[in-house]
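Same chain as my last thread, 460 residues:
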Amino acid sequence: MREENKIIVGSEEWCGFPSLGIPAIKARVDSGAKTSSLHAFNIRSFTRNNEAWVGFDVHPIQNNRKTVVRCECPVVDRRYVKSSSGTKEKRYVINAPLQIGGEIWDVELTLTNRDAMGYRMLLGRQAMSGKILVDPAASFSLGDKKTSEVLQLYGATEQKFTGLRIGLLASNPELYSNKRIIEAGEQRGHEVVFLNIKQCYMKLDADAPEVHYRGGKVLNDYDAVIPRIRPSMTFYGCALARHFESLGVMTLNSSDAISRSRDKLFSLQLLQKSGLEIPTTGFANSPIDTNDLIEMVGGAPLIVKLLEGTQGRGVVLAETKKAAESVINAIKSLRANLLVQEFIKEAQGKDLRCFVIDGKVVASIERTAAPGEFRANIHQGGSAAIVKVTPEEKKLAVKATKTLGLKVAGVDIIRSSKGPLLLEVNSSPGLEGIETATGQDIAGLMISAIEKDLGWKKSS
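reply #2:
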C-alpha cells in the first residue's frame, strides 16, 4: 500500500536483505526505536583488504534453529545501543540493502542476538525515514507468508515427524533449556510441542479423563511429557503431570518426585534418612527457639534459606549472631518458613553441579560465586567451568536422585573439610550453563532417556 510515494506498513511485516542471502525475514516495525537491528550469532571480526569486516550467522526464521544463513559484511561502526530493557550493549553496525514493498534502499543494521525476542529483526525509524508510513493497528499490510513458503525460499522443507509425540510442559518457550529440548527432540525425528502450563486444564471423569489446551484442544495423544515446572507453578504443574500419568502418558520426572524435590525440608529429611551427607540444618516454627536454632548449626556465620526460594533467591548469609537473630526473626514475623544451615567457609563460594540422567552423572561443572557474593549461582553473575568429580561425589549425586525418585536432576554438592555435602536436588535443572561449559548435548540425552523408557528405536 502507498501514500505520497511512501509505503504504508503495519506493526509487523516481511522484508528481505538480498545481499546477505536473506530473502524473507519477519520484522517488528517500531518507530519508537531509532536504529534497526538484525538477529546474529557467532559474530566474529576479521580484516579483508585492510578493511574491518564482520562475519555472523543468522537464524532468519523464528523458532527455527536449523535454518542458518552465514553472512559477511564490511563494518560501518561499533557503537553502544540501549535495548528496550534499558541495558547498553556494544554492537557491530553494518550497511545492507533492505527490500520491502517492491522497493529497495540501504539501511544501517546493528547486530545482536535476538533469540529471546519475538522477531528476528527490528525495523527502526532511521531506516524508515522518508520511505515508510506506519499503521500500528495493521499487520502484514504488504502480505503475509506461510511457513512452507518461507522454508521454500531457504531451500528447506517442513519436517515430517515419524517418531514419538512429546509435550514440553513449561512456562516460557524462549528459555534456552526449552528451546534446546525441542531442538534435540526434532533432530531425532520426534514431534515436540510446547505446552504452556497456564493454558492447560483438566477434565476429571472416571470414564473419559482428559487434558485440554486453550481453545478446547484435547492433549491425550502424547507418548511422553517433559515437565519443566517453575517453582511458582509447582502445585498446578504437578497436578497436570499427575493427570497425564493417569492417562498412561510417560513423564520424564514423575509428579510425585517433583513434589518431593520442591519441598526443601521434606527432601532434606528423605536424603538424611538415606544416609546422605548434608550440611547441618535447623528448622523451627517459634521465634522463641531462635538462639537454640543458631547454636544447633554451629553458630554464626550461618545460612538462612526461605523454603520457597529458588535459584539462589531467598538465601542470606548472616555473619554474626546478632545479624542471624535479626534475619530469622524478621522472616518469621512475615510467617514465612525458613531453614538455618551451617556455613561451609572452606568451599570459598564454589559448588558442584552434577547433571544426572537415568542413574548416571552425564556432566559436571564447578560454579563460582560472583565477586562479593558468598554462593555460587550462574543466575546471579557467577561463572561455570568443566570439572572432574570424584567417584564419591558421583555416588552421592546418583543416590540423591534415586532417593527422590527423579530420572533427571541437577544435584548441587559442596566440598567441605568433612567431604562432599549435598546442598540441593533440582528437578528442572537449566541446560545453558552446563552445555556451554562442557559442550555436551544434555538435551539430547534427556530425549534418549524417554526413548529408552518407551522402548522406541529409530527405524532404519
